[in-house]
Amino acid sequence: MQQSIKLSVDAVVFGYESETISVLLIRRKYDPFKGKWAIPGGFVLDSESLEEAVERELKEETGIKINYLEQLYTFGNPERDPRNRVVSVAYFGLIKPSAFKLAASTDAEEAQWFTINKLPELSFDHAEILKLAITRLQAKITYEPIGFELLDTKFPFSDLEKLYAAVLGREIDRRNFRKKMLGLNVLDELDEKVSKGSGRPANLFMFNKNRYFKLKKEGIIFEI
Amino acid sequence: MQQSIKLSVDAVVFGYESETISVLLIRRKYDPFKGKWAIPGGFVLDSESLEEAVERELKEETGIKINYLEQLYTFGNPERDPRNRVVSVAYFGLIKPSAFKLAASTDAEEAQWFTINKLPELSFDHAEILKLAITRLQAKITYEPIGFELLDTKFPFSDLEKLYAAVLGREIDRRNFRKKMLGLNVLDELDEKVSKGSGRPANLFMFNKNRYFKLKKEGIIFEI
DNA sequence: ATATATTAGCGTAAAATATACGCATTGTAT
DNA sequence: ATACAATGCGTATATTTTACGCTAATATAT
């Protein structure tokens, strides 16, 4: 059997800052779609796993160290690349704001954050990939505690609430959200307070991964 | 760039009969794992889409016409095939009992149904693929109306209930299940009855796909 | 200094859903 | 006829979700 299909990986990386969700895009250096915006990615090496390929490409193209990575979908339409047959395994990832600045400063002309409502035209079928990734993020955040991967380690509760509102694109009742989230018993309340601007200073919280895994093992599911 | 990764597809096909869920497996003709049981699948041709590849391979190896097909996950561990680097896009599929008999008679020595609790040893990482497929089926049947793809077009309500009990591996309260399912407004009650053995004859029902799509568009979700 | 705005945090009542069953109905088997 | 088996309907109770009032703590304006 002679097969000339090439295999690539792509990564939709989400970040969260100033109450909006952004996606990391790069400007392509080579044809096809030279100069156009695209999701970071590239070809898989013979010896590496798919995850290794994604992390390598992300580092090469954007300098980012990913915080959460999950396989999204594999795109295999024979026409998706105008030149060769390329099948791409798409991933979606999340990073914390600390890594944020790092990426933006690495090579501002080539890698850039875009608010998910103000996206440029994209190469290949990347618009479709991105759309699927957003849907998945919205669905997933309600039944897996991945939201914390977008926040700093310590965060005021309101940050978490605003994050959920931003991802889901709708208002959230502050009081019910707090009750539900705290009721899941995966947050540790710290003895630290932060005051940003006016208003009552907020207590800081931390996500307790160990307790989450323990509860998960007992069959208790995270659900917002 | 020189890349010598081969791309294959695999399909976990579930069937439902006599109150149990079965999986379709084939006995491998060639090395590696010659003579061992495996999930049907094979290499993707340069010109075909991934879905076309799955359907072609299924037809070639088992004679089955699939009823529902959905991408599951892509397995890319470099060591998953002892000989070459093979990345496989796994699908999971469902078929109705009518196609059932057809498959069993095609080539009984090579394609066979196995109850999901009595599986033989499997080739490659197929045990892992199968495990993931079962988890996905269990999750999906509760929020998408895919269960009907495993039943005949017309079915008594108890068939649906038994199917859910079999897939989820637990008892289901007949009365509450009926209330909930009928409340979703996607079933048409027919003016036909069936009597199998003793007991009161049951009315037949049909899944109404059009109504389901209409409700879905209105944001009403199927959930059991 | 005092009032006012602003964000944090707690609690409670009502509505909607899920769960647990009781029991009549309609057929077949003996 | 009578027993049995499966279908089909209803109701009471528990649980979860939703809506929203109110107090607390701090910054900022007057």
CATH class of the largest domain in chain A: Alpha Beta
Main interface: chain pair and counts: A-B, 23 and 23 residues
Most strands sheet of chain A: 7 strands, mixed
Percent strand of chain A: 25-35%
Summarize the structure.
Two copies of one chain form a homodimer. With 224 residues, chain A is α+β, with helices and mostly antiparallel strands.
Which short descriptors sum up this protein?
224 residues, alpha+beta, Nucleoside Triphosphate Pyrophosphohydrolase, Arc Repressor Mutant, subunit A, 2 domains, seven-stranded mixed β-sheet, elongated, DNA-binding, hydrolase activity (chains A, B), WHD_NrtR (chains A, B), NUDIX_hydrolase_CS (chains A, B), NUDIX_hydrolase-like_dom_sf (chains A, B)
Any overview of this molecule?
The structure is a homodimer of 224-residue chains. With 224 residues, the first copy, chain A, is an alpha+beta fold. Chain A folds into 2 domains: 138 residues, Nucleoside Triphosphate Pyrophosphohydrolase (Alpha-Beta Complex); 71 residues, Winged helix-like DNA-binding domain superfamily/Winged helix DNA-binding domain (Arc Repressor Mutant, subunit A, Orthogonal Bundle). Chain A has 6 helices and 10 strands, in the order E-E-E-E-H-E-E-H-E-H-E-H-H-E-E-H. In chain A, strands 1, 2, 3, 4, 5, 6 and 7 form a 7-stranded mixed beta sheet that branches. The first copy, chain A, has a 3-stranded antiparallel beta sheet with strand order 8-10-9. In chain A, a hairpin with a 2-residue loop joins strand 1 and strand 2. The model of chain A has no long low-confidence stretch (mean pLDDT 93). At the A-B interface, strand 5 of A face strand 5 of B. The structure holds a DNA duplex (30 and 30 nucleotides).
